[in-house]
Amino acid sequence: MKVKLLLTILGSILFINCSTEKDTTTSSLALLPGNVPVIVKINDMDTFLSEIDGNEILQQIRNSKDISPLIDMLKPLGYMKSPLGGYLGLMEEGNNSFGFVYIPVDSIPQVALDSTLNKSVESISKGDFKFIRYEVDGSAFYSSVIQNKEVVGSSEAAIESVWKHVENETPVKGQFLKFDKIGNPAKSAQIWLDLNNGRNLLNRVFGEESETGKEKYSDWLSLDVSLEKDVLLLNGLAIVNDSLPSFLGLFSNTGPLSNKTNTLAPNGLDSFISFTFTDFKNFSKNQKRFFDDTGTRDSLFTAVEEIGIGQMDTNRVLLLKAYGTANISDYIQSIQTSSMEYQGSEITELGKDSLLRQSFYPLVQDFEPNFACVMENTFVFSGTREGLERFIDSNKSGQTFDKSLLFENIKDLITEESTLLSVANSKGIEGNLNRTGLGSLSHLFKNTDLTEFLFSSQIVSDAGFLHTNYLIKKINATGTKSGTLEMFKVQLDSDIYLNPQFFTNHRTQGKDIVVQDQDNVLYLITNKGKVIWKKELESAVQGKIHEVDIYRNGKYQLAFTTNNRFYIIDRNGKEVAPFTFKYDGGNLNPLAVFDYSNNKNYRFVVTQGAKVFMYNNEGKIVSGFKYTNAEDTITGAPQHFVIGTKDYLVFKLANGLLKILDRVGNDRIKIKEKISFSENEVKVHQNKFIVTSKDGLLHEIEPTGKIGKSNLQLNADHGFDATSRTLVIMNDNILSIRGKEVTLDLGVYTKPTIFYLNDKIYISVTDIQNLKTYMFDSQAEPIAGFPIYGASAIDMTDMDNDKKPELVLKDQDNSIIVYKIQ
User: Fold this and answer.
1) Cα–Cα distance between 185 and 180 in angstroms, integer?
2) Residues 161/146, Cβ–Cβ less than 8 Å
3) Is the CB of residue 768 less than 8 Å from the CB of residue 779?
4) How far apart are CA 707 and CA 697, in angstroms?
5) DSSP letters spanning 261-291
6) Which tens digit of pLDDT belongs to each residue from 47-87?
7) Residue-wise pLDDT tens digits, 405-454
8) Are 93 and 35 in contact (CB under 8 A)?
9) Residue 484: exposed, middle, or buried by beta-carbon count in 10 A (0-12, 13-18, 19+)?
10) Do 564 and 584 touch, CB atoms closer than 8 A?
11) What separation, in Å, do the N-terminal and C-terminal C-alpha atoms of the chain show?
């Protein structure tokens, strides 16, 4: 594939840094030898050099070992002054090498060597051909004045080829002359490529030929160069000869359409490609002419007007958008082996068949369409059932690719209609290039660190021309549309029992995830979605898992109870001595952890029936704590609050008593009235204890012992959460936030949860019947991007310390999902 030099030519000139002065201009293109397949026309040398020097992308490309020979070869350009720019041509030379010549526009001397350089200068004559050999710091180059231009070249042979070209009056390639006329002089440079005659040169530049890029890309390319600090944009024209095979020739006599599959493809993709056709029959004719060995084709796909290809890791999904669906539906039914329902959509399992690959070759390769579903007028195929489930999830939650960070970064830089549109991050760039005809570039990018960048290409077929647009830019979240971005999913070995929650990783200072499945297996998962370890417990975790640092050294442990044990487990999954403690009879409540002075001198409170066990960091019973037997069975985990300077320990009892004690277990507030407690915890709001009852009352208890009641007419299964200033109540489908009510769809809702992150309050609730997770701010305004697909209450934190919160929740019965709020 011939387009490798689109970017590497620029990267090779990074070292140039010289000052120039303007002079009169003279045409110089005619001096370039006829065997030059690649030309860089430099319009403004000062601007071009400044842009190259400040471009982060070219700095990364320059560090790639694959183009170091090219960089070394072009080093002499750094010793030149060229006020009005000129023409840089690359050419093949003998012995599997390559060279360059530079023809300036002006007539003043070009080579200007600093007196401090270690150099030698030798004048040489070969008959009428006179030239100068320079050697600077061990690198040699040559110059010769030809038709009043000081021509600079990488070798004697390169300079002599210019001289012979002039002597023989060889004409310049006509297409290069046309490119010279239509180039945009406002751009600092253009790149022109004769792709019919450049394969050997490009193979020599890169030292190998890509297996995925054997087909020719196009016949000619002319590209304007635009460089900013973190943006590289090449846009222009591609020209194809309809009688010769090429990748872009597939789209001859087809017109562009508005890309739609990006509104269906799932968010979080590493790569997305869309091909459109105004006339699929013409595309099929081009296929037959260029790739006549692809086997049988069928007319059933003639209604297809767009192909979308999405990839995440190694999983791909293929979308066929059609204006007529009957033929394709019949085809799917004819190879169907079974079907299943998923969230109201039918997923069809397919038998082995090569017709789809043959019909869309080479756009679709190395893909097995094992499963299919239909969404609107689009047929969706995947190699795995999970791929289609992810697709359906994304569509139901509105988490589609057009809302992704990748697409947000390019949408203002592309036209509305495309023949080909692609975008990829660094993980997806190799596959993206291979599927868009640019496979030979993938080797370069594979060895270049572009982690923070995206690659995008757009081709628009119009009136016999192909308008091209190639872009590399830094992925920038600033100024992009707010919303949610799916980060990753993790599938467990069994269905989830304990909802996922975050846990601090003391090594990274980020957050990992802990979750338990129904087989009592506990998982620790990184914030990249990798399972670190699994540990099987004897029974299910009760309530939440607490994060503690019992050694006070910044290394955190997991503390929790199961049905009959109290565990503390370190980050490696090992039990911490002297814990674990076993309790005969089981039936433990969730663990409570108190840290009175926030100094990690913990009190671990285990309750079993009416018994209370309070332990210190060493696993010893705290002898000074008196409340070791309650008046009745304790329900739920005890709680600790601070109001003013006083500590309050709160226990709810099955007989309706609310015990409020001090640190040693004495009554701090005596409450005689009994409450039919709801399933909600006690909270402190406006310096009062608040708790709700099954009969819909809100009880408020002041530190003085005064009790007030408000009849909120709550249903027995209501939920509430509160902070010192914010009260949130979920009753039926009415969510009340600080007295402001929001009516949600009818459903079955979890208790609301309040989170405070980065000086902002978030309130979340999940409809577990309709699988929607909602998020609001403290003013009851919805957070952009919600609701999302979700099957449980969430946990929320800034897991990677980028000031953008993440949330984790149950996805499917046996998988978790992590979203980022942008």
Assistant:
1) 10
2) no
3) no
4) 12
5) GGGTSBTT-SEEEEEE-S-HHHHHHHHHHH-
6) 777 788 888 888 888 777 777 778 788 888 878 877 788 99
7) 889 899 989 999 999 999 999 989 988 888 898 877 777 777 788 888 99
8) no
9) buried
10) yes
11) 39
